[in-house]
Design brief:
This protein has six helices and six strands; from the N terminus they run E-H-E-H-E-E-H-H-E-H-E-H. It is α/β, with parallel strands linked by helices. It has one domain: 3-Layer(aba) Sandwich (Rossmann fold), CATH 3.40.50.1950. Strand 5, helix 5 and strand 6 form a beta-alpha-beta unit.
Length: 184
């Protein structure tokens, strides 16, 4: 699978880190684009983002990357975390960065685009932008962790969201709690 991961300036860098930790760059072509604000947030929240060897990292200003063209075949794009500003710019069709142009391409080509907002509360503008991206074909997967698996660490809480992302990508999720499969 050819995957594009993008991250923006919302809090929640742990979700991206846990997703990177669960993807195998030897089994999938994994590309990563970080906005400048996302780098600042990751540094504050994680100290440093650990990028596995084999992940292709791209600059958010370099439009000379394959996934900003509809002719390049990619399977899915995940924006995690997705700031409400990014969600709004995607909803408006703004394409003045690599992340925004790639999201625009994934929507127009009807490819899987998963947006993982973490911000709360939402304003009416946020809700309207969420509806717009849903109507355009994106999957809106808010970073709302589940607790019925009784996670005992912050990482396990984050993994409840990451497992849902992996499910929507159609990738195996060993260790994921499945309702009804564990006696619940």
């Amino acid at each position: 699978m050819k995957l594009l991961l993008a991250t923006t300036g919302a809090s929640g860098a742990i979700y991206l880190q846990r997703l990177l930790d669960r993807l195998d760059p030897a089994a999938h072509a994994v590309h990563l684009v970080c906005s400048e604000p996302s780098r600042q947030v990751a540094a504050q929240e994680l100290g440093a983002l650990r990028i596995p060897e084999g992940v292709h990292v791209h600059d958010d200003r370099d439009m000379n990357v394959p996934f900003v063209s509809g002719s390049a075949r990619f399977d899915a794009m995940v924006v995690v975390p997705c700031s409400m500003g990014t969600l709004g710019r995607i909803a408006a069709g703004t394409a003045d960065s690599v992340i925004l142009r790639a999201a625009d391409v994934f929507l127009k080509e009807r490819r899987k685009l998963i947006l993982v907002p973490r911000e709360t509360p939402w304003s009416l503008i946020h809700a309207r932008n969420a509806v717009a991206v849903l109507e355009a074909g994106a999957v809106l997967l808010p970073a709302c962790p589940g607790f019925y698996s009784r996670p005992e660490t912050v990482e396990a809480v984050a993994d409840t969201v990451v497992f849902r992302i992996l499910d929507h990508l159609g990738l195996a999720t060993p260790g994921a709690f499945r309702w009804g499969e564990s006696g619940v």
